[in-house]
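Usage

Read records sequentially. Each one opens with the input sequence:
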Amino acid sequence: MSAAEAADRSHPRGRGIALWIGFLLVIAAGIALAWLGAHSVRQRTVQVETVQPGSGPLIEPQDGVLIEYEGRLTDGKVFDSSAGKGPVPLLANQVIPGFAEALSRMQEGGQYKIHIPAKLAYGAHPPEGAPIPPNADLDYDVKVVKVVPNAALMQSATPEPQQQSQPQPQQ
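and closes with the structure output:
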């Protein structure tokens, strides 16, 4: 067969279409797997969205913070809020694991939206009497008003007040 004959030879159209369909199916499968994988990761990690950036260093576990916040369940029901109470003082290392992780990504003056999956919140055992059901994901809006560096270290270094000794009755 000469080159001219090969050039005249027609190719079946169906084969080219089948290749394109196969290519598109592979791309669609890749997108679906990526979405499912990202969904799985979202269920296991704390998500922090910066609404307004803060300044200064990131909050460390030993830092104290004053925050204003609103905590909601995923259906939008508010379960806790600092509204009307003023900023709430916290030690970054004495909160639920997901909130501690979120704080480590924040700076003084910043405003943030946080999503904490249930296993990094209260899991199957929320505080007794709390309006948080078992295995509930939690959402927070947080404003970091003030950061007090090393507040936990200062608290542990503060000596306990000594009890005054009572005079002993004489015998």
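Summary fields computed downstream for this record:
- The longest helix spans residues 13-42.
- The helical segments are 3-8, 13-42, 97-103, 151-157.
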